Amino acid sequence: MDRPREGLTDAAWEQFERDGFLRLGQVATDDQLLSLQTRMDDIMMGRADVDYDQMMMQLDRVDGPDSGPGPQSKGFKGATLSYRKIQDLEYDDVFLDYMQHPLFRELCARVYGEQADIACFRAMFMNKPAGEGTHLVWHQDRWTHLDRDPLITVWTALDPATLDNGCVQIVPGSHAALVNPEHGSGFLTSEQTEDLLEDHDPVPLELAAGEVVLLHNWLLHSSDVNRTAGARRAFSVCYMDAQTVAPNGHNYPVVFGEGALALGS
Question: Taking the model in full, what pTM does it have?
């Protein structure tokens, strides 16, 4: 059954500001969700009409089951469902259409202002292949090469996300301050992680396929490996103020506002 989500109450927004995350339910229609799932598999298997040379793609295990992730680099790495990460999906019409949902525009307006143009810092597929996946240590998402921090990520489960298959785990309220303000990566040390887990019980973000969660980028989060026989796929979009400046002069594509990416362009 189609269950598109529209609109956001002030009470829900207050909850997000307090906790640093907000469950949004299913935003895409069932048909849209199926299109996202199918398109992602077609891209991994080399069946999609996309410019693979301009798409960042990373394998989950580059040299077999006992190895680590491959390099994050442009270009196709072979027809396999064992990719860990694929970026630059804002240039694909199926994903762009979903990214430009009115609810996501409303979220951006609440964070960056009604008049702000909104760009995409990254639109990426995240995957924990069946029986594999990469352990992600506790961290806050930060990018100190920018003149201001991108603040929100919209995370959509393309498969059910569970503890068994390595769902994201969070510490509610931990977005209120930076743990390591002097470090650009945002990753906690082993000692900081021990202290965190002594003081807090992480909350698993177990989600149904199609369910969406809004995350503040400073919210402490982690994820485990996938111990099941099915993949745990997700689509993650980080929205930013389009006025953000990068020292290297990189321009991030606008998705809401003047000069926004358009379908079919």
Answer: 0.94
